[in-house]
Structure formats: C-alpha cells, structure tokens
C-alpha cells in the first residue's frame, strides 16, 4: 500500500533538503535564501526499501489573501489534505519561533497524524533547540540531519506508524533486513595493533601491518558481517599528541580519523598493555565521549603481558579517575595477533550499541525523578528550593534527557552528576555518554489534551 507523506514547515528549515534525501535525487532546489520552493513538488520516497509518495511544500506563511504567499499557502493546505502523515520540520539550531508554534497549533487541529522533525541536529549545538521542541506539544521530536542523512531510521519508524496494522509485520522485517550496518571505528595511538585487529576480524590480510608506526594513513572502511550482523568496520590512522603532528600528510590523517569518530556509532579505543592508558589515550577517549559515541576500551597484546593483574588494575583505576563521564565503560583484554578474545570484543560492541540506542519511557523517568529528588533534594538557591518538575528522554544515540525545573541556572554540576549516576544505575546504562539538558518551564504536556 502506498501512503502519502507531506513535508511542511516555515521557510528555510530544510524541507527541500529532506525531500531530496527521501527521493534520492536533487529534484528540489536548495539554497539558504528563504522561499526558494513555491509549488508543491512530488516524488517517490524510499526508506530502507519501503516506497511512498512524498510532497515538498512551500514554507508556511500566515497569509490568507490573493498574494503569492497566500496562494502558496493554499497549495500547502491541499498537500495536507492529501497526506496520510505530515512531517512538520523545524530548525533546531535556530530554535523555536512564533511561526513554528502557530503552525504546530494549526496542524494539531487538522486531525491528521503529525510528526515533529527536528532538522540540523548534527553536533552538540543543536541540543538546546531539541529540548525546546517538546514545547510544541507534538510529542517526541525526531532528530535528523537531512543534509547528512542522519536519523533516517527513526524517521522510517515514524512513517511506519501511519501504515495499516496489516502491513506492519512485513515492514518491520523489511526494515530489519535493510537497516544500515553498525558503524564501528578502531582508534588509538600509532602502533598499538589497530590494523592487525581489523585483519584478524576479517580473517584475511586486508590491511598493511608491520613494526613501523604510522603505516596506515587513510581511514579504511570495510563492509563486513559478524555472526550475520552487517558492520562497517573502519581502521584509522594513529593519533599522536597534537604537538608532535607536524607533516601535512599526518595532519590530514588526523583530521580523517576525527571525522571517522564523528560518524561512528561504536568506537574501540585500542591500547598497548605494556604502555597502559596514557594521556593521549585519555584525550582520544574524551573526543569519543564529546561526540556522543559508544566507547569500548580494548587492551591489546595481552598474551605478552607479564604482570596481568597489576596492568589491568592500573588501567581500571585510571579510567575510573579520569573518565567518570562514562562510568562502567566496557574493558576487553585481547590479542589481535593471536585472535584471543575477539568474540568477546564483538559482544561488547553489540552490547554498547544496544545501550547507546536505549530509550526509557517518560512515566518510568518521572517516577525515578520523584524518588531521587525525594532522597536527595536539589540545593536551595537564595533560600528557595530548586524544583525539578518533569523529565523525558529527548533522544537516544546517545541517551539524552530533558529536565524542566524552576531555576536551571542554580542547579550545580555536582547534582547533575548525581542524576547521571542514578540514571546509569537504575536503567542499566553503563559506559555510554549520557546528556542531561536542564530547561526552565512547565511540563510541556500538562495543558495539552
């Protein structure tokens, strides 16, 4: 069965970019100038093998006369009438505008299924706008980057909800088969055995290896499968301290590795057990955490370690002391050369990926919030208690939470760490980055019916 998806939103939020992404071609003109799109444009969208009709519309304007803007609005209204589901696109980097709020109210009255699509969500700069999006009262926003193709699987599941129940089982199977591979990057300092590990995983000498440091220059991506699960495996150039990076090629290699981390889902930081966890390793780990990727520590050359207990204890203590923001990060000892514990490493990768994708129900979160604030209330500010009113999960990948409270600026970092540790313990979120956005305001659903 073919359904119709209409893309609506105020001017210049990325509707045409999303349209082009869904149809797989640059059919719609895209420019930073608002109002490029004027007519409805239709195409055949495709997400993970499922096809549907998609309509790109002009930017919504509050005009009801015979002007050009008024006629454009009529075209948009017709697209809404034809749609089985409407995607209201907002620009989270620009934040909510009165026009976003106006048309969210208009769409709620349309009695059509509406999904809130939070575009331009790449990077941490979008987090504040993503949390604000809940105030529109259209449910959980879908974070995407139409330009970079991020968040398309979440968008697929939203569109899937508009399909009659008789078709859902087949679509779920189709989505599971066609979903993109797990993006796995192997990073670390030079000569710790990254390429050797990749070769052992693949079962062939796919990459050059040797005792010389710095053999790998490019980030090499290889499509692979482990126990039937598709994986895009990326070997990267070794990362040295910035002060030691002098040559042009090494600078390019470093930039390529950092870009790989940004687009990975799970990152294995490989160490040499004889050298332990050095300052540069911690720097790399923090890069991974700052980008919100799932992190695993792989301790290589374990077969050659003479005092294993002391080496492992030193690494664990350094991790606990220097990386408290990813408490419980998986630590796997292995030998890339001999192939020891390779299966254990991959099970840790799958486990970290599952935690990174985990979603927690709003009701469960608010019961937890009530319990932890009762056990340890926030400190008072100017004689008045800071009250945490409401909590929801803004997104996964990594788990990101929004808490609405009375005085967000007066909530100390130590209390946020208390909340973060409580979330990890209660909801079993070891090792993954957790982000908590504190916002001032009422429960955005309290007055919605």
UniProtKB/TrEMBL annotation:
One GO term (biological process)? ribosome biogenesis
Summarize where GTP 1 binds, as residue positions: 9-16, 56-60, 119-122
The EngA-type G domain is annotated at 3-167, 182-357
Q: Which residues bind GTP 2?
A: 188-195, 235-239, 300-303
Signal sequence annotation: none
Would I find Repeat among this entry's keywords?
yes
- Single GO MF descriptor: GTP binding
Q: What are the UniProt keywords, alphabetically?
A: GTP-binding, Nucleotide-binding, Repeat, Ribosome biogenesis
Q: Record keywords: DNA repair included?
A: no
- The organism's place on the tree of life at top rank: Bacteria
Among InterPro entries, the record links this protein to:
G_ENGA, GTP-bd, GTPase_Der, KH_dom-like, KH_dom-like_a/b, P-loop_NTPase, Small_GTP-bd
Q: Report the sequence similarity comment from the record.
A: Belongs to the TRAFAC class TrmE-Era-EngA-EngB-Septin-like GTPase superfamily. EngA (Der) GTPase family.
Quaternary form? Answer: Associates with the 50S ribosomal subunit.
Q: What does this protein do?
A: GTPase that plays an essential role in the late steps of ribosome biogenesis.
Return the HAMAP family for the record.
GTPase_Der (MF_00195)
Give the protein's recorded name: GTPase Der
Organism whose genome encodes this protein = Pelagibius litoralis
Q: What gene makes this protein?
A: der
